[in-house]
TrEMBL record:
It comes from Deinococcus aerophilus. Residues 2-169 form the CobQ/CobB/MinD/ParA nucleotide binding domain. This is CobQ/CobB/MinD/ParA nucleotide binding domain-containing protein. Transmembrane segments: none annotated. It comes from the Bacteria. Pfam families: CbiA. PANTHER family: COBQ_COBB_MIND_PARA NUCLEOTIDE BINDING DOMAIN-CONTAINING PROTEIN, P-LOOP CONTAINING NUCLEOSIDE TRIPHOSPHATE HYDROLASE.
Amino acid sequence: MISVLSRKGGVGKTLLSVGIAQVLGERGHRVALLDRDPEGSAMGWQHGAQAVGTALPYQVIGPIEATRLDRVEFLVVDTPPNDMRTLQDTARQSHVLLVPLLPGAGEMDRLQETVQALSKVELQDGVQLGFVLNRLEHDNVSSAMKPALEELGYPVVAQIRKAVDYQRAFGQLIPAHLTAPFREALTALEVLE
Ligand SMILES: Nc1ncnc2c1ncn2[C@@H]1O[C@H](COP(=O)(O)OP(=O)(O)OP(=O)(O)O)[C@@H](O)[C@H]1O
Ligand SMILES: [Mg+2]
């Protein structure tokens, strides 16, 4: 079980969840993406795809369907912002945790809330934790992020640049030229070889 978590909203949890699910699905794995966000963005992504007849290589499910999952190799979980209970409950059950964040000093501060929430959870043995920088631009603020996180001992497993094509991908497959960061994250966390 691979979960994508952050206490902060709008940092790219849903994009990262969908990207991870797509990359695993395209490798031929059976993947379910569990949408634990009542806003239902991941579910909306699937509905969008169905509306235009695009087949996604993973299925998006809700909490009820998750109780009767069968023969799924990877369960990817998208979580809501500002929901301590769901964050901690998801983290407790996960083998891989991904925390996306945006560039900026304020974002680093907000990240501490997520790290603190995770520190209060009894995590699975051998759990892998990785941070994903999202919406990076070619400026000093963005380039300062990776070193700053690493100085705190937080491993950066992927970097996603800001691109309007990520926004346009809602309800679609993420275009192949934009999927490298998702593969990198999975490789760094030893989910993929
Ligand atoms: N790298 C990127 N480049 C451009 N737009 C992006 C990028 N990442 C995310 N976005 C856009 O930013 C918005 C928020 O992203 P997303 O929905 O993935 O965040 P979230 O953390 O799931 O938000 P919420 O907390 O509301 O669930 C979306 O409109 C998405 O298309
Ligand atoms: Mg979301």
